[in-house]
Write a structure and sequence with these properties.
This protein is α+β, with helices and mostly antiparallel strands. Helices cover about 25% and strands about 20% of the residues. It binds a DNA duplex through strand 5 and strand 6. It comes from Rosa chinensis (China rose).
Length: about 325
Amino acid sequence: MESLECTWPASWNLQEKMKEELVRGHELANQLHLVVRNGDGETAKGLAAKIVCSFTNSLSLLGGNHDSKGKHIQANTSSNTVALPTLVDSSSWVALEAIKRTEMLINSRSSSKKRKTSHSWSRDAPDFIDDGHTWRKYGQKQILNASHPRSYFRCSHKYDQGCKATKQVQKVEDDPSLFRTTYFGNHTCKHSILKAPESILDNVSGGSPREESNSKFMITFENNNNFPYEQEHPFFSSYSSTEREIIKSNHVASSRSSSLSCDYLVPPDQVMVFESSEPIGRLPTMMELHSEDMITFENNNNFPYEHEHPFLSSYS
DNA sequence: TCGATTTGACCGAT
DNA sequence: ATCGGTCAAATCGA
């Protein structure tokens, strides 16, 4: 059993530690991407463990569970599996999900029962956020073994601009107070890319208690993989006008970076998981989330991303 | 009147 | 054959 340790200099503050962790995770994810493409499963597993460690540490820092003296969280590896980090807290299940999905990535050539073929990402949230795009609901279905129906949305600019972004929203089985939004595809519609969600302005001008007490910091992921990214991330998709009416100003999301870098505006108390087999340049350009939100980015060549979100008129 | 939502039908993937 | 995703007609509401 190999033990991976992630440590920071004792003099580092929270921001520095988190930035280091996220940058390291970015680097490792890029390495993993290349390794997986070359079919080196064992190396990929080791990298996956390090990535999990890095992101788990980040989550710990975000969740305020970090050790202020710069202690570490361990991630263990075994010969055949990517072991769980030893961190046991509210975000540990997030790490679990990360591991499962990383393993899916490693075994990406194994059969996937799911039909979804495009990359996706998901998010759980207790209420709605304005992601800067407009959506049109086009269907709702009762899903087998699910207590709550799933709603289907497409970008409002599907026909006028050929935007293929879609999302699905469903109440979380274990916690019906949460909505899981899964985004599929990237937005190619033009105006929505630069559209600043109203809630940003609300938040900036209003100054919620959260923001007053916690200074935000930004992390920039430069794309160093020479992959061109022509499309924005699906995170910045928006709700329909109907949805906007119930959007709470607790959430902020906006986009402002170039196509080759991503900026993240991250309040210290939020919980996020980033997973991607592709370069981090595909991640959302900048975002700020509610502390109860969880975002999971999954890319995949053959498996889905899920993402969660709130709002269905039928759920109100 | 027109755009958005609802909902049953249809169709493709598994 | 079943399930999940999309279509499209009917309906709603501003």
